[in-house]
Write a structure and sequence with these properties.
Radius of gyration: 18 Å
Protein name: Carbohydrate kinase FGGY N-terminal domain-containing protein
Strand order of the largest sheet: 3-2-1-5
Distance between the termini: 40 Å
InterPro entries: ATPase_NBD, FGGY_Carb_Kinase, FGGY_N
Number of helices: 8
Order of helices and strands: EEEEHEEEHHHHEHEHHE
Number of domains: 1
Helix content: 25-40%
Keywords: Kinase, Transferase
Structural class: alpha/beta
CATH architecture: 2-Layer Sandwich
CATH topology: Nucleotidyltransferase, domain 5
GO molecular function: kinase activity
Number of strands: 10
Family: Belongs to the FGGY kinase family.
Length: 231
C-alpha cells in the first residue's frame, strides 16, 4: 500500500495544498485565493471563517486532483504566514479576525516604547536575531491590551496563523520553536523569552502563548470534526 502525504501552505494571499507519494513525486494540488481585510490604514486581517474554508476547499481540490481520498493520507505537513495574532477562547472559537504579519497598527506603541527604553530595538535584535516587525505577536499583544482589553481578557490562546489552522485540524493548542523565537523570543533558547515578554510589558500574558515544541515533532492528529468558529 502506498503512503500519501499532504502539504499545506497558507500564505497571506493564497492557500496552497499538494499531495505527494512516498518518493516525493507531486500527484495533485489545489489552491484558493484569500483576501485580506484592511478596515483601517495599516491594518491587515483575515476572516477566520474564510481562512478555514480556503484550507478545506484546497484540501478537497488536491485530493480530487490526485484521485485519492482523505483516508489515503498518512501524514500532513503544515506551514503558514508567521507571527501575527489569532485569538481564540477556551472552546477554540475565534474571537476576532486574525491579525497577520504585515499589520502595522502597533507602530505608535513601539515608538513610545523605544522612547522610554533607548536600547529597545537593540535588545530585541540581541534576543531573537531579527529586525522587529510591527506585526510580530508581542507588539500586537501589547496593542490588544491597550485597545481591545475585553477581547484579550476572553482569549485563552494567542498564536499565529499556522497554529490557528493546527487547532482547526487537530483540536490541539501548540506552537513550534521557530514561531516562538521570532515572537520576538529567544533565538538561543528557541522559545518564548521572559525578557522579551517583560520588555513589551506583557509578561502576565505568557500563559496565553502556547508551549513550543520542535518543528519536526508530531503536531497533532487530524480529527473527524472541525473546531468551532463563529458564524
Amino acid at each position: 500500500m502506498t503512503d500519501y502525504f499532504l502539504g499545506i501552505d497558507a500564505g497571506s494571499s493564497v492557500t496552497k495544498v499538494a499531495v505527494f507519494d512516498e518518493k516525493g513525486q507531486q500527484l495533485g494540488m489545489g489552491f484558493r485565493r484569500i483576501r485580506l481585510q484592511r478596515p483601517y490604514p495599516g491594518w491587515s486581517e483575515l476572516d477566520p471563517v474564510l481562512a478555514w474554508n480556503a484550507v478545506s476547499e484546497a484540501i478537497r481540490a488536491a485530493l480530487a486532483n490526485a484521485g485519492i481520498v482523505g483516508n489515503d493520507i498518512a501524514a500532513v505537513g503544515l506551514s503558514a504566514a508567521m507571527v501575527g495574532a489569532w485569538l481564540v477562547d477556551d472552546t477554540g472559537s475565534a474571537l476576532r479576525p486574525g491579525i497577520v504579519w504585515e499589520d502595522s497598527r502597533a507602530q505608535d506603541l513601539l515608538e513610545r516604547r523605544a522612547a522610554d527604553v533607548p536600547d529597545f530595538y537593540q535588545r530585541v535584535f540581541q534576543s531573537d536575531g531579527c529586525v522587529l516587525q510591527q506585526g510580530c505577536t508581542l507588539p500586537l499583544l501589547a496593542w490588544l491590551r491597550t485597545y481591545e482589553p475585553d477581547v484579550l481578557d476572553r482569549a485563552a490562546h494567542v498564536f499565529g496563523y499556522k497554529d490557528f489552522l493546527r487547532l482547526k485540524l487537530t483540536g490541539r493548542v501548540a506552537a513550534d520553536r521557530t514561531e516562538a523565537a521570532v515572537a520576538p523570543g529567544s533565538a538561543r533558547q528557541r522559545d518564548h523569552s521572559p525578557e522579551m515578554l517583560a520588555l513589551f510589558d506583557v509578561a502576565d500574558l505568557a500563559h496565553k502563548l502556547p508551549a513550543a515544541a520542535d518543528s519536526e515533532t508530531i503536531g497533532g492528529f487530524v480529527t473527524a470534526r472541525q473546531q468551532p468558529l463563529p458564524a
